[in-house]
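Section 5: illustrative case.
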């Protein structure tokens, strides 16, 4: 109930200040649970991914510091978020999302790079996908990169790619992880090109620092 309310509220706010987002490739979304993976380009792209994948409900990881605020904790818990210690993730960082996914009631939103200011992929999404037996859905966001830019009504586009299935026999050693990472990166590039062949992502923080 709370999740549906918050999703409707976010949809209303985005519509009022920016207009209706454009979703492409929704036919690639499976009927069951899956993991949306994509480059993390702005703090609000998880919200837009959740809107784009509606009516599926999503869970997502959030750094444990956010749960210290009681109000924010209430919102996060009821939005299907779970805390993760980034410095020392621990077994729960894998077990909790696997449990969500196996229930079939929730899909998961993950950013393999971990943060908005890193392009290096990490292997958590691949491990979780294999253990839960669900596919990875490569996803990209193109649009405003700051909240202020949303008011310029720059077009928002989210595109879903074809599922990446993890072979249960695949060993998730360095070679196995590299194989899946290569597929994800290629899918991200291809999706960006399909939306806008001239697209080139520039981290707002890097651009601001350069100025």
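Designed sequence:
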């Amino acid at each position: 109930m709370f999740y549906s309310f918050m999703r409707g509220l976010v949809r209303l706010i985005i519509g009022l200040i920016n207009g209706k987002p454009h979703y492409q490739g929704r036919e690639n979304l499976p009927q069951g649970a899956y993991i949306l993976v994509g480059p993390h380009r702005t703090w609000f792209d998880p919200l837009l991914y959740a809107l784009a994948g509606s009516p599926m409900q999503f869970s997502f990881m959030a750094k444990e510091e956010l749960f210290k605020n009681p109000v924010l904790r209430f919102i996060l818990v009821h939005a299907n978020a779970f805390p993760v210690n980034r410095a020392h993730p621990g077994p729960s960082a894998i077990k909790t999302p696997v449990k969500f996914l196996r229930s079939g009631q929730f899909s998961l939103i993950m950013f393999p790079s971990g943060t908005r200011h890193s392009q290096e992929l990490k292997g958590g999404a691949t491990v979780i996908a294999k253990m839960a037996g669900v596919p990875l859905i490569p996803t990209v966001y193109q649009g405003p990169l700051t909240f202020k830019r949303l008011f310029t009504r720059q077009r928002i586009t989210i595109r879903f790619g074809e599922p990446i299935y993890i072979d249960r026999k695949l060993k998730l050693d360095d070679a196995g992880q590299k194989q899946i990472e290569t597929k994800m990166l290629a899918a991200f590039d291809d999706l960006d090109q399909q939306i806008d062949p001239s697209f080139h992502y520039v981290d707002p923080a890097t651009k601001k620092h350069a100025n």
